[in-house]
Amino acid sequence: MRAAATLILALALAGCDSAPKVVFADASLTLPDEPVELPEGPGRDAVLENCTACHSPSTMLQQPKVSKEKWESIVGKMKKLYKAPVDDAAAAQVVDYMMHVQSQPEASR
Amino acid sequence: MSDPRLSRRALIAGAATTALAAPALASIGAKLGGMIDLGLPGGPSLRPTTPAFPGKGEMIVQRIRPPLLETPMDAFAKGTITPNDRMFVRWNWPFPTEVKAAEHRVAVGGAVKAPVSLTLDDVAAAGEHISVVAINQCAGNGRGLSEPRVTGTQWGNGAMGCAKWTGVRLKDVLAKAGVAEGAKRVRFAGLDVPLTDGAPQFIKSVPLDIAMRDDVLVAWAMNDEPLPILHGFPLRIVVPGWFSTYWVKMLSTIEVLTGEDESHYVAETYRWPSVPVTPESKDFPTVPITAMPPRAFITSHADGATVALGKPLVLEGIAFGGDAALERVDLVGKGWEIPCELGPDEHGPYAFRRWSVNLPQVAGDFEEVGVRAKNVNGAVQPETLVWNPSGYARNVIERITLRAQ
User: Fold this and answer.
1) Do residues B58 and B279 lie in contact, with contact meaning Cβ atoms separated by under 8 Å?
2) I need a surface site. Which of A21, A84, A106, B215 has the fewest CB within 10 A?
3) Which residues contact B108 (CB under 8 A, 6 or more apart)?
4) What pLDDT score was predicted for residue A20?
């Protein structure tokens, strides 16, 4: 049995130079819409304007509760490393907003 | 026929305009599908689930854009291969949503004898076609379970999966250009690029000896199907036993380096401390996160499940050895352990393997019961978390509690 199967495979491959042929077809996909959801709170507009170009708001909303200094350092990282164009006033509003959101119970985030 | 989800969405959108703030994560869940609780200590722990991504089944949404989709643990309850529609998805930056096969090229350059630009057919003709079954696991898998918590993508344990990958050896593709004298590392880049000028592109490199391994692939197929776009169509790197950060997707450039890799995603992140640290530690030395340690999971029962008092009980799950074959799995309680029976070695050292254990009689609750994997190199899962500030390479023994009734 084993030998017969090998033989059939060998015949199927005869004519090919080496390995079996792989056929590459074009590919495309449509990503689902994103329901932009940000809880109400002071500074919400600053977050929408400055923090949603590169990633969904869930990037911020899913973070564990951290200190104000940590949010300042995250916003700083977005600016310095990823070149997010955020001015100082907006950065302060974003930090305040995240502190506000993280002070709310999870069910309302 | 109107789509019920749409009309529901319209309703919720209407509600959001009222004075009451809409609970954001929960309402995304209502719009997309269901909700799941990942059990992340201190929260937020609820995530929406959705089947809305093309080619994907029900997945946990960590982020829609760029997509971060986690595999629900129930996908690991049977078998050892993760179907393509359940494999987790992870992108750092946006990627093209359309790729024309005939136009795609892989540039092989840097410290080579003669740089080449290869078509997909050139890549497929570069050498013998081989398949490897290997676990693809995010370096940050389980980060959300870290205590103390750390920032980053808040994955549960579902940023992993095991698939059959088919392609040619990376070393055969490198041979098309010829590796030059003095080569030290091989770096990969894909079609995913930053939105902003000056931000770091997601490029990754491995040492030359890893690149030359017989089982390190430039792969085009996943479980005998062309790589889906979400998994890196048309080509991705596969490094069995290493975290998937090195498995660069939509491969378009291979660059041979003669020195260290100073780029951001190798020199500054995806690194972890080389000495023990605490959350207070500063300025400690770090090394790149590379080979995977062993892990095991109970898949037959969820945390808090009830079991029948006085009756026999069968616990089951999956385990893997990481960068070496799995040797054994033990069920561990507080002060006791019982060896588990390993399922057949179906797919080799880098794949999931099933385990099970028969307990003759349930005498009471099982408090904090877990499974501990050990690999043939002697690496064994630790009792306590090896905490690190980025939450990488979690492999503490995962424990659950079962209630006897």
Assistant:
1) no
2) A21
3) B115, B116, B117, B118, B173, B174, B176, B177, B254, B255, B256
4) 64
CA B10/CA B31 separation, integer angstroms? 9
Query: Which pLDDT score, from 0 to 100, does residue B390 have?
Result: 97
pLDDT per residue over B301-334, tens digit each? 999 999 999 999 999 999 999 999 999 999 999 9
Residues of B in contact with A85 (CB under 8 A): 196
B295-404 fold = Immunoglobulin-like (2.60.40)
Nearest CA-CA distance, residue A79 and chain B, Å: 10
Query: CB-CB: which of A24, A29, A53 is closest to B101?
Result: A24
Residues of A within 8 A of B195 (CB-CB) are 53-54
Site of tokens 């040492």 = B207
Residues in chain B closer than 8 A to A106 (CB atoms): 43-46
Q: Which helix (H) or strand (E) holds B375?
A: strand B366-375
Domain at A36-109, CATH from 3.10.50.40, 3.40.50.300, 1.10.760.10, 1.10.490.10: 1.10.760.10
| Sign of torsion over alpha carbons B4, B14, B44, B395 | positive
Contact assignment for B151 to A34 by CB distance below 8 Å: no
DSSP E strands in B114-232: the ranges are 116-118, 130-137, 160-169, 185-190, 204-207, 217-222, 225-226
The answer to whether A61 contacts chain B (CB < 8 Å) is yes
Q: CB distance from A31 to chain B under 8 Å?
A: yes
Look up the pTM and report it: 0.92
